[in-house]
Amino acid sequence: NVFRKLLSHTEKDKGDVLSLEEILAEGSDPGEKRLAPQANCGGTLRTGKARLRALREAMYHSAEHGHVDITIDIRSLGVPWTLHTWLESLRTCFTQNRRPLIQGLLKDFSCIQEDEYTEELITHGLPLMFQILRTSKNEVIGQQLSVIFTQCYGPFPIPKLTEIKRKQTSRLDPHFLNNKEMSDVTFLVEGKPFYAHKVLLFTASPRFKSLLQNRPAAENTCIEISHVKYNIFHLVMQYLYCGGTESLHIRNTEVMELLSAAKFFQLEALQRH
């Protein structure tokens, strides 16, 4: 690309230019000629440091302005990540839904020096990575994120969470679950009706109570649930009708969505499960 051509052009031009020291060495003895390149090592080192500083600055600005391809190109030249440039690149890739680049960036997290771990990792990095985990269905990305979370947590054992055993204030026989003939309230989820009972939902959580109280007066009006998938809503209702999680069969791909739904419907025991 253009960026790589500019870099290679610069290197070629530098190779064609003779330093004053090399020009003077042209008229010297053969022994002195051999010493000339060695004397120029300091200049080469200074040039290398200046180039690295320039590339780091270019990497920072490209990450800040969302030019993730240029950032990746600079990284491929051996320029190390800073936590900030890595996070900005990850954010851009997530926004643009560029899954292969997300995988590459997550794999590169281990290359970030530990002294780069600042408060930004906690305030911006972890929320971003949990958002990616919640929305991504890619198994590789999930595994990569779990490795990063483990690394961030450290070697300490995870404290045991005791499940809240709350009595269901009311429950109905599973036979009534999504039963059209016996229902008195209908939810509309992904364009499909789901039949339920007010007597159960009024006491299930403040969220369900609010949904029922704010329902339009017309009896045939459905309560639309727009941000929960049908199969996830079915699991939530199954939990309520059966009075617990024993009968739930939750797939790995459904865990994060069910957690989000449990949080929305204010079902604390289901969240902790």
TrEMBL record:
SUPFAM superfamilies for the chain: POZ domain
UniProt xrefs under SMART domains: BTB
Residue ranges constituting the BTB domain according to the UniProt record: 183-243
InterPro entries documented for this protein: Ankyrin-BTB/POZ_domain, BTB/POZ_dom, SKP1/BTB/POZ_sf
Protein name per UniProt: BTB (POZ) domain containing 11
Taxonomic classification: Eukaryota, Metazoa, Chordata, Craniata, Vertebrata
